[in-house]
């Protein structure tokens, strides 16, 4: 047992270690503030996310999400407007003495000016939804807003055979209008940490997100010892009008703060923070979810190592690191080995990294880990390591940081728990055919795009009204960009190799690329060479143009420089044995990622950068997969632009406001596939 007096001594060491590792430019007042912050937390602040948990023995569970406006820093009834002080909240109502309960108040960073949010069930994060593998779940999403349409996407769930449940407005469904309710019913097949969020505009940046956890009955850590950690940067401008105004004035500002489970602090305001409780002798699992809008975050618990066991719902060989770099939409599950923990409160820190070279800024995100030790267990001491291991760097070596060892995400290896057949649709036979696609994510000619195609959103649901979508991108050339509803046809049963690249004139920062409807195997990641001074040398494995050097080309039509690599098995460094699977991967600035899927999940699947602004501006496309085999629920509502003719294709009845997937399933014919591809003949779509 450690003598009690060591606790505070070690705590001070911890404070200074954080300062050394993450905040070299930190000044003394910040250190003192962190110390006082912890003292307030000892008084018993806590934070919980109330959610829905499906009974372990249930076959089909039901819950609902009420999408509604909400406001920060306002309590119910006589509480009214509140302000933060000493990690507590107080009402400005003079008749309310003393602190008010914090659980029902959305504090965000405790900024005294109320912000308008869009939430599920009035909380931020929204309620966590927790079910077991292969349980069916029905979630009624009711839109209670008066001004805005909404949809909910279940991020990371592949929606096998149920593409209409994917929740992308104008891709997999018509948006849910004010007053309407949509019935999402689906059956997640494999366990892991997922999340849900709005897929309309930038609503998720306004609070419309929550955790979606799929438990495995064989999971080694009991549910009661699992914790959800949702981290994000917070910007007081993150609503559509403020962002637009800031763009017009060309003054988009850096984030104001960082939130952990919806709680953070603005400068020195001592707003309530999140605290997690663990006990020595227990196993404990943390499900880290990047719910941010655009910034790259560095997560750590200084003094404790993170044993990463999963990413994006995929189990990996446990890998010990000190810090995790997390981009928007990624998930990393880790365990803490509490044998090494002392009985005390540890800081949980989150820093913002600059967008290109990931320069580490002083941490502004703070939460707490309270370790108790009721059985007086001793604490082991880690072997002394001078260098800090950082998971998920988008380069081989960290610029300007000699003490950091980069652990690329493809160093994570398949743990072998998952039978590959779980990931594919058994009903569709596998063909002995492979297609190769190069997709360049960037800003050629300053346009957010994929292969120079700036995504134009359909004005109907592409899944149900394919003939009304113009997918013609022929005005794009090898060097010129264009606007179009970019889609990529994937042949049923074929193997798809995608080279996701970030090269050419539009390569400026790394992008987290998310694919709906699949998780993909990460067969290879190629990073730029970086000198300690921060000079990048881009990969030359890819040829952007026959006539221009890569740095002068838009790189809209890339190919391997060595054509023998068209057979992906011949690419040096390819891993087809134990690759990690992801649904969101960082495509490194100056490099590329090779991924593989099998086209055996028919649907129209969105693929896009998960930096919201990049997606909204056009870095997105639709995967038009096995279209002739797509099944959609009978009676799924359709919608039309006012400029189009009625399609009438699926409208057997007048549009119901509630979809039902209990109706008979109908097949879209091959004829409609052709119309999807040939819809450009419709004059209304010519611009
Ligand atoms: Cu991006």
From TrEMBL:
Q: What is the lineage of its organism?
A: Eukaryota, Metazoa, Spiralia, Lophotrochozoa, Mollusca
Q: Which UniProt keywords apply?
A: Copper, Metal-binding, Oxidoreductase
Q: Does the keyword Magnesium apply?
A: no
Q: What name is this protein filed under?
A: Uncharacterized protein
Give GO BP annotations, semicolon-separated. iron ion transport
In the UniProt record, the signal sequence range is: none
Similarity comment: family membership: Belongs to the multicopper oxidase family.
Record keyword rRNA-binding present: no
| Segments traversing the membrane | none
Molecular function in Gene Ontology: copper ion binding; oxidoreductase activity
Q: Which InterPro entries match?
A: Cu-oxidase-like_N, Cu-oxidase_2nd, Cu-oxidase_C, Cu-oxidase_fam, Cu_oxidase_CS, Cu_oxidase_Cu_BS, Cupredoxin
Family matches, as Pfam families: Cu-oxidase (PF00394), Cu-oxidase_2 (PF07731), Cu-oxidase_3 (PF07732)
Q: Where would I find the Plastocyanin-like domain in this sequence?
A: 113-217, 229-365, 469-625
- Per the UniProt record, the source organism is Mytilus coruscus
The record's Gene Ontology cellular component field reads:
plasma membrane
